[in-house]
Design goal:
Length: 334
């Protein structure tokens, strides 16, 4: 998973690249490469003055209160909001001193890159016990792309180790909204742990660019100082305050995604394709034919996420209503 600090990292969602690889593929493309909910939150119309004015501080305070209630944080003072967790990663990585960082891998590659940018020597490991040797420990829970879940007690034990030596455990809970993993958002008060939450994945609005860091208030103040004013756009404030407070939609969407994930798993199983893990938003295929499947789907205008360092792995997300038939037909013909 490692790379030089300056190397660009390949991610899902690059339709221009997919079109270049498969110029004869039919349009429109079905993008299953990102693990984002295909059913966006149905927010109310955004008032025109939201675009014309700088965001009011009171709107951000309101969002932080709503987010604290939604995520189970102790208070709004424990919440820092930014333009996506991607922007928060290097800020979080620079919060502590030390030289050693450990990332529980394989996982989202930007965590290791952010730690290297902050000056850490980074170890990527699949052994939880090795995380204790680091000053900065990073765990994605549930994991992307494997769906692996680390138990809360194990995370709290690691946080205690980090706290005792002035280190930090960062738990990225980008996919916890659709999993059975237990959030640590309400457990950050003692220190030693910081939680990241992504808005766009579960609410199907990645382009809105909104994410949260949940930590002790003094850490939150440091993050907010480094972000500066107006870190969250007016449209994002408008949409997120509605979405995070809409418990009925959240419950119904979790049920819907669970049903659709089961349908995707059945389609893959019927095609004889081995599933290694995942969440309700994506399946991780681990199969010697993964590269052939990537090509097969790509020629049919269906984009998936492959991993150069793990050629047997392929991540496949959920299509929207219009994409299921094309995906099912493509899998049947594989």
């Amino acid at each position: 998973m490692g790379s030089d600090v300056g190397d660009p990292i390949q991610h899902g969602g690059n339709l221009a690249k997919a079109r270049a690889l498969f110029p004869e593929a039919p349009e429109p493309w079905i993008d299953l490469s990102t693990g984002i909910n295909p059913h966006s939150y149905p927010h109310s119309p955004i008032p025109g003055n939201v675009f014309a004015r700088l965001p009011e501080p009171a709107m951000l305070d309101d969002l932080k209160t709503v987010a604290a209630n939604a995520y189970g944080a102790a208070s709004a003072a424990h919440i820092a909001a930014g333009p996506g967790t991607q922007i928060l990663l290097p800020i979080v990585a620079s919060l502590i001193g030390g030289r050693k960082a450990a990332v529980l891998s394989p996982t989202y590659a930007e965590h290791a890159r952010a730690a290297r940018l902050a000056g850490f020597d980074v170890t990527e490991t699949d052994e939880l016990c090795r995380m204790e040797q680091a000053d900065l420990a990073i765990i994605v829970n549930p994991n992307n792309p494997t769906g692996r879940m680390v138990k809360r007690d194990d995370l709290l034990a690691l946080a205690s180790v980090m706290r005792a030596k002035g280190g930090l455990l960062v738990v990225d809970e980008a996919f916890v909204d659709v999993s059975e993993a237990e959030s640590l958002a309400g457990m950050v008060g003692d220190g030693g742990v910081l939680v990241l939450r992504s808005f766009g994945k579960f609410y199907g609005m990645a382009g809105l660019r909104l994410g949260f860091a949940i930590a002790q208030p003094e850490i939150v103040r440091t993050i907010e100082t480094r972000l500066g004013p107006w870190a969250v756009s007016g449209p994002a404030l408008h949409v997120a305050r509605e979405a995070l407070a809409d418990r009925e939609w959240q419950i119904q969407m979790r049920e819907r995604l669970g049903t659709e994930a089961a349908t995707l798993q059945a389609c893959l199983h019927d095609a004889g394709i081995a599933i290694h893990g995942g969440t309700s938003l994506f399946c991780l295929v681990r199969d010697p034919r993964a590269q052939a499947l990537y090509q097969h789907l790509g020629r049919r205008g269906i984009m998936t996420r492959r991993f150069d360092e793990r050629p047997d792995d392929l991540r496949i997300g959920l299509p929207d209503e219009s994409g299921w038939r094309r995906l099912e037909e493509a899998l049947k013909s594989f």
